[in-house]
Amino acid sequence: MQSFFGPDFIRNPYPIYDVIRQHGPVYKGPDGRWLVTGYNEANTILRARHFGVKHVWSAEDLQQLKDSAFAITEALMFLHLDPPDHTRLRALVSKAFTPKRVAELQPAILQIVQQLLDDIQAKHRLSERSFDFIQEFAFPLPIIVIAELLGVPVEDRGQFRQWSRDIVRVENAVRFAPSVDQIPPESLAEANQVAHDMRSYFRHLASLRREQPQDDLISAMVKAEESAGTLSEDEFLSACIIMIVAGHETTMNLLGNGIFALLNTPEQLALLKEHPEITASAIEEFLRFNSPVQMTLRVAKSATTLGTADIHVGDELIILLGAANHDPERFPQPDQLNIQRDNIQPLSFGAGMHYCIGAPLARLEGQLAFPELLKQLPDLAFAAGVVPDELAWNENFALHGLKTLPLQFS
Ligand code: HEM
């Protein structure tokens, strides 16, 4: 496994997918886990009821971590749960997080995009006109939007931004440790502190909204919780926090990977500038071409055969979404960016019962951000001295995005 998932994978996973693909679309890797690279196979597994999610912690882990606010928060996130708990908790959020609520955010999102672009221009106009696209645009946009969606008051947004930064950092250190015993104690302490602070904050915000509902997601979730009446406080708090954990870095990577792909493909950049009306299709192609989430895990709940693969109960499968999106059987010339590609339907938001609940919001952010970016900063380019292939990527196998992206405008 080590041979597939190392520093080269972090930089550019696609050549590695091509190597894995040579063994077939569902291949038992060196550590015994199945590696799924085929589009149809990935789609089938994600939609099949006899594959469950992999729980974040085992029962023994949870026993060991029973006083950890972080472990409790993560364990109860519905992304990590199977039915019936998944169904119950997802229903709570989907009742509140409606297409109408997303559509109503449009003016606010556009204003946030314009404000960020104004700030970038004001800050760097007099200097060399270069800025870090990730830190100054792709990172703040989704978190401000999530704060707006949830109904976090403006005065709390600085703190909210900090928690969001911290939770992702500590999640990497804690969740991906090889065993509970190997979690660095200082990382666990920090994770617990962040989780504790966020939980206290949402507990307080929910109590305010219970007394005086507003037109925001927390109020709508409180209402849905009251009518469902089957939710513990821990579950409610996890449902709030998952919106940040699942919605932030992912959307940041869509923006970063999208603009990076465009700058590397000047004729596609020119095409999009000339035809902003094809932005919706361009977003699907960005999602396909360099997927913000590269993989997810499933566990077989019953024995099954997929092509020539005999899968046993308890087997783990790594669904390589990024590989499925580059399956040459499904996408002609998969390694080429083509924003006019037909019938894209990438697996970047997953499929089946765990299909991303925030997909309409992420798409809307992209559809507002890209045209505005290309309009306000029409000569956007890599900053002087940047060698695109040498830029650093976040050291995370699942979430694929650039650490920094220095750009310049004229
Ligand atoms: C481009 C941005 C995004 C990408 C690529 C993305 C990707 C994904 C993927 C692949 C899954 C399914 C994982 C699996 O099946 O194991 C998922 C689930 C989820 N996403 Fe997103 N996501 C994005 C944005 C968002 C946003 C903006 C939010 C909320 C504000 C969000 C909230 C969620 C939640 C709550 C789930 C769990 C759904 C469930 O388990 O039923 N995501 N996302």
TrEMBL record:
PROSITE patterns: CYTOCHROME_P450. Coiled coil: none annotated. Pfam families: p450 (PF00067). One of its GO terms (molecular function) is monooxygenase activity. Gene3D superfamilies: Cytochrome P450. The keyword Heme applies. It comes from the Bacteria. Keywords: Heme, Iron, Metal-binding, Monooxygenase, Oxidoreductase. PANTHER family: CYTOCHROME P450 YJIB-RELATED (PTHR46696:SF1), P450, PUTATIVE (EUROFUNG)-RELATED (PTHR46696). Belongs to the cytochrome P450 family. This is Cytochrome P450.
